[in-house]
Amino acid sequence: MIESPPQQLARIAEQLQTSGLNAGTSGNASIRLVDGLLVTPSAVPPDRMTPESMVELSHDGQPRSAGVPTSEWRIHAAIYQQFPEAGAIVHTHSTYATALAVLREDLPAFHYQVAKAGGHLIACAEYAPFGSPELSDAVIAALGNRRACLMANHGMIAYAPTLDAAFALALEVETLCQQYLIARSVGRPHILSAEQMDDVLERFSQYGKPTP
Ligand SMILES: [Zn+2]
Prior knowledge:
Layout: H1 5-18, E1 28-33, E2 36-39, E3 55-57, H2 73-82, E4 88-92, H3 95-102, E5 124-125, H4 133-143, E6 148-151, E7 155-160, H5 163-186, H6 194-206
Parallel strand pairs: 5-6
Antiparallel strand pairs: 1-2, 1-4, 2-3, 4-7, 6-7
Helix pairs in contact: 2-4, 3-5
This protein binds zinc ion.
């Protein structure tokens, strides 16, 4: 069975809850549509969300269906506009990513999997109020050429071609932040060099391709 975009969003909203990435009504997700975006609703607990709860918006935020969109729809629209390869987005206030974001620190290359986001580190975006155009600008700047970033005193955001891949990347970022903060709390983590991370990025780009 092929899931419709609203069905996918309802399933991921539930997975965000059961995985522990989101609690209560924090966090949100979206899917790119041909000429707009489909986002999770504002202030609806995930256990009450259904495919019908999802809200369709034009690129500039005009509602095309009933319901109130997440107050953070602006960041989603900005990411789709900036990155053509973004097909879906997951945003969380998950505990360890937020803990590092409160310190306003980037996640350095303490583990090779940091390259999963597409670069040598996962940057932390500057603080701006939730839902503001300034926050969208800060997130776009922190993403740079990567697919995930932390958000100061707020949480994190990840995008990918598909919603399942965006969820997997968000889960990866949360796990990495947990590992990094545990290591930091008992010692000084070794950080991989730029050369070592370039090597990992090269290996990731070849991963799964047939050997010539
Ligand atoms: Zn948020």
